[in-house]
Amino acid sequence: KAIDITGQRFGRLVAIEPISMRARGGHIFWLCECDCGVVKSVRSASLRGGRTRSCGCLQLEIVKVTGTKSKKDLEGNVFGRLVAIKPTKKRMTKSIVWLCECVCGNLAFVPSGQLVSGHTKSCGCLKKEVVAEMGRARRNLPDEAYILYPKEEKRIAVYLTDQYVKRMLTKHGIDNNQITPELIELKRLSIISHRELKKTKEVLNELL
Asked: Is the dihedral angle over the CA atoms 59, 36, 104, 85 positive or is it negative?
């Protein structure tokens, strides 16, 4: 049974209420308010174990005063779609690189500075989703113009209209008057299966 920590203080954090998100292993997350006013989601075990004591502001203050980073201050903190699991021995631009788990299930190594600043919020899945949505809106195309590949909870959109495929073929040196419906379909299949254009030409030559 989950332990009720509502109203309890953990360093600079006060537990407000549990949220629906769960980490690997079913760990519960609590919505907490920091003394600085920031509201963060933190893993219950990290709060009760004393590993997370602030929203990240404490770490920044320690850096300013001592020039060193607190390795345990980020553990269990949620940064966008990422949960900080543990620090590693890696360093990037003088920042400790943390092993993080994304809500999509992927693991990512992210410098602490990028987590605290909000520069990195996912393993990369968020950017792909945003780019796909922007592309769809910019071209004002129906959903049928996209083939979606589910990978865990991610969806990668591949633009496969005839116009796009023709542009790809001309980019690789094929004249417009040489482009046939058969070649367009073969190129479309090569994009789906990640085959190179050379293989598409070989298949086309065999058909001809």
From this structure: positive
